[in-house]
Design a protein that fits this description.
50% of the residues lie in helices and 11% in strands. The chain has 439 residues and is an alpha+beta fold. It has one domain (5-436): Cytochrome p450. Strand 2 and strand 3 (43-47) form a beta hairpin. Helix 9 packs across helix 11. The radius of gyration is 22 Å and the shape is globular. The termini are far apart. The structure holds protoporphyrin IX containing FE (HEM).
Length: 439
């Protein structure tokens, strides 16, 4: 058994002012792939060891989720554990089967094409349009999750929902930086207001959905189906938790993936040309459908590589429920631990030249040569993202519908600086120039 290295006293003070990504990089590069770090509010193991990732994420009894996300998500599927989690997961899963994904594709295409048409009109006078991919991709993802999972178009022309979600993410990020050791949302008035706005938003979405009457979207199914423990359908509070889960866990994450995808498209014209060639060859001029996905191989590799370099969920925080040995290390009860896709996805031993963007890292032979747990943008084990195929589908539609219509260029010379809250956003806007392609 190896002893876990403790970072020496004074480390926290020495790291003050650095971003959480820099802190975890420094700790694991300096002290080894499993480090124990004193946060001042409790101890945290930072994990950058693929075998440990597997053991931890596949064992929620020994490593339950921390309470940070529950501050906003309550008992939502992304924050719960145990019997309640299991019965709700069973309600979600049938809504993400291929048959449903095929239906969602048409809606995704409609929303993406509507955005492309708007851009084309705006570009008509100047030959190109300059846009902020950060905001536009979040809006697109909200429009899609509204019409699919939440069963209703969400009218929000000024994208106020984005501001509410951003505020909440900011506070969750702050709470998260205490690594789950301090987790009440009542700490200041601004934070309370942000959570209050989130509650009102969820209530409005639930009320909007009730007005429409029962159908087959996820929210409607959650409203109708009796839970196995109570025999009653979800209460308003439980529904609120699931709506917030969709807004934060589904809309925000997917919007962020698409934002980084747009920036990377703009920075890598040679990749964009290959994507264009593939889309033209497989699709010609027609819209993408679910059945086309297996033949869009390079597009899939592009999306995988985007999620490697910028995993929207950069860390998963768990509690150590009992003393336990992991990958040859002893972990002490009561501490928290952070499993980080950011660290593993940028580990030089697994990913040579890790900061280089290269979709061909995901050629089948390259994938087969790596340990399976070298890549987990959607988590692993029983909590693996229920919406992963939905999110990837949105990525496919984005690429297929946009690269055939526009030449996409990044405007700023340097890549955006990552802003790690609960998810990895970009600091500031992500300006992208779109020039319509002539057929
Ligand atoms: C690029 C987009 C997305 C990323 C990167 C992402 C990432 C993740 C990750 C890392 C987890 C594991 C959490 C854990 O182990 O604690 C997760 C779980 C989850 N995700 Fe996603 N997600 C994305 C999109 C979506 C979408 C579109 C939805 C819903 C429509 C969704 C709903 C959920 C839910 C409900 C869980 C909890 C699953 C469970 O514990 O059973 N996600 N996601």
């Amino acid at each position: 058994m190896h002893p876990v290295t403790h970072s020496p006293p004074g480390t926290r003070e020495a790291l003050q002012g650095r971003s959480p990504l820099e802190v975890i990089e420094y700790l694991t590069q300096t002290y080894g792939s499993i480090v124990r770090y004193s946060t001042g509010l409790g101890d945290l193991y930072v994990i950058a060891e693929p075998e440990a990732v597997r053991q931890i994420l596949s064992n929620p009894e020994k490593f339950p989720r921390s309470q940070v996300l529950a501050v906003a998500l309550g008992d939502g599927l992304l924050a719960s554990e145990g019997a309640y989690w299991r019965q709700v997961r069973r309600l979600y899963q049938p809504k993400f089967t291929p048959a449903h994904l095929a239906e969602y594709t048409a809606i995704m295409v409609e929303e993406t094409v509507a955005l492309a048409e708007r851009w084309r009109e705006e570009a008509a006078s100047q030959g190109a349009v300059l846009t902020n991919a950060a905001r536009e991709m979040m809006r697109l993802s909200l429009a899609i999750i509204g019409r699919t999972v939440l069963g209703q178009p969400i009218e929000d022309p000024d994208y106020r929902i984005g501001d509410i979600v951003t505020e909440v993410m900011k506070y969750l990020g702050e709470l998260g930086s205490t690594f789950g050791t301090r987790f009440h949302a009542g700490q200041n008035r601004a934070m309370r207001r942000a959570f209050h706005n989130l509650d009102r938003l969820a209530e409005a979405i639930i009320a909007g959905r009730r007005q429409k009457g029962p159908e087959q979207d996820l929210l409607s199914v959650l409203m109708q189906t009796p839970l196995s423990d109570t025999g009653e359908p979800m209460s308003d509070r439980q529904l609120r938790d699931e709506v917030v889960t969709s807004l934060l866990g589904g809309h925000e994450t997917t919007g962020i993936m698409m934002m980084w995808a747009m920036d990377l498209l703009g920075r890598h014209p040679e990749v964009q040309e290959r994507l264009l060639a593939e889309c033209r060859q497989v699709l010609g001029d027609r819209p993408v459908t679910f059945a086309d996905l297996p033949r869009l191989e390079y597009t899939r590799r592009f999306l995988d590589e985007t999620l490697r370099l910028y995993p929207p969920v950069w860390s998963l925080v768990r509690r150590v429920a009992e003393p336990v040995d992991v990958a040859g290390f002893r972990l002490e009860e009561g501490a928290h631990l952070m499993v980080s896709a950011w660290l593993i996805h940028r580990n030089e031993a697994l990913w040579p030249e890790p900061t280089r963007f290269d979709p061909d890292r995901f050629l089948p032979e390259a994938v087969a040569a790596r340990p399976r747990h070298a890549y987990f943008p959607f988590g692993l084990g029983q909590h693996i993202c229920v919406g992963q195929h939905f999110a990837l589908l949105e990525g496919f539609v984005l690429v297929a519908e946009l690269v055939r219509r526009f030449r996409i260029e990044s405007v700023s010379p340097e890549p955006p600086e990552p802003l790690p809250l609960i998810t990895i956003r970009a600091k500031g806007p992500v300006p992208v120039r779109l020039e319509p392609r002539v057929a």
